[in-house]
Amino acid sequence: MNEHSPNQPGLAHHFSTPQQQKESAKLGLWIFLVTEVLLFGGLFVAYGVFRAWNPDMFHNAHRALNVVLGGLNTVILISSSVTMALAIRSIQLGNRRNTVRFLVITILLAAAFLVVKYFEYSHKIHLGQLPGKFYTYRGIEGVNPHLFFTIYFAMTGLHALHIIGGMSVLIWITLNTARGRFSADYYTPVELAGLYWHFVDLVWIYLFPLLYLIG
Amino acid sequence: MEISHARTDDHVTPLKIYLGTGSALLILTAVTVAVSRINLGGWNVVVALGIATLKASLVALFFMHLLYDKKIYLTIFLISIVFLGVFLILTMFDTMERGTVYEILANPVNPEAVIYQNQPADTVAPAGHEGH
């Protein structure tokens, strides 16, 4: 890691070319994303089973979610994906200042997502629309409405943890870009952080219709 | 020709592709919200998942560069989706159709048939048992 050759920035000694190093890193990140697919996959299957058992209850319970706030968060995450893509494009073109600018906007959008999520969660906690035995709300018809909120909090909670993790990575990337560690010749960490960030967006693309828009 | 400014061999996606993808994602979000307000019965979830998959494909192909990168990344990703499909479909078959199995056991065509012998009484559930 520390044996960088001066004319090949970021090249570790056990790789023969920067290209080989980059492809290995990307392959590793994609395999990590595959494990993420399976991690969220378990929850999606649980969602499918709960919903198949209680279709009417799911329909009634989903009305407790605020489509406007969910839609707003969808727009926020899509915008953050665009700014992330533009950050990578800027570093590819060697424009470090624009890279930092787009990364900061991405981080701010991620924070905005969490703020919206905070308002949604606190409203539900206030009403007692909580998982399992903590469920005290009485306004939803149907059998076992707490199941909907169990899966809602499990899925959006795990997703929110990914947002927080992604923000931490992006802050680290931003600081290192500002310090001049990345350039058009070596920007693999920026690109990998971007792949992770787009994946978090991708999960939300499925969570939004499945939780907020049950027809 | 912005691409020629790049100092690497890597593909630099044109700005208008990123902005176009972003716009398409926002429009599809509006479409999926609008469609969810129309009652299509069981088709609502199909349409919602179809639009979500279209959006996910746009993100994966353009933002995550799967369209331009080496195809090994696309292959690995698609394999994970296939296995998720196997996981989901087999589980749904099981959980939705288990009641049918109980009904078949409870209403044997020929109660004297060999397969129903040595069957403990409690595994033959009463008819109409829903399986959950």
How would you portray this structure in words?
The complex is a heterodimer of chains A (215) and B (132). Chain A contains six helices and no strands. In chain A, helix 1 runs parallel beside helix 6 (188-212). Chain A has helices at residues 18-53, 55-62, 67-92, 96-127, 146-178, 188-212. Chain A is elongated, with a radius of gyration of 21 Å. Chain A is an all-alpha fold. With 132 residues, chain B is mostly helical. Chain B has helices at residues 15-36, 43-63, 71-106. Chain B is elongated and about 75 Å long. The N and C termini of chain B lie far apart (62 Å). The chains are: A mainly alpha (215), B mainly alpha (132). At the A-B interface, helix 1, helix 3 and helix 6 of A face helix 1, helix 2 and helix 3 of B.
Helicity range of chain B: 55-70%
**What's the story with the biggest beta sheet of chain A?**
none
Name the beta content range of chain B.
Answer: under 5%
Largest interface: A-B, 49 and 56 residues
SSE run of chain A = HHHHHH
Number of strands of chain A: 0
Helical percentage of chain A: over 70%
Low-confidence stretches of chain A: none
Helix/strand structural class of chain B: mainly alpha
Intertermini distance of chain B: 62 Å
Overall geometry of chain B: elongated
Mean pLDDT of chain A: 93
Number of helices of chain A: 6
- Uncertain regions spanning at least 5 consecutive residues of chain B: 1-8, 128-132
Give the CA-based shape of chain A: elongated
What share of residues are in beta strands of chain A? under 5%
Provide the residue-averaged pLDDT of chain B. 83
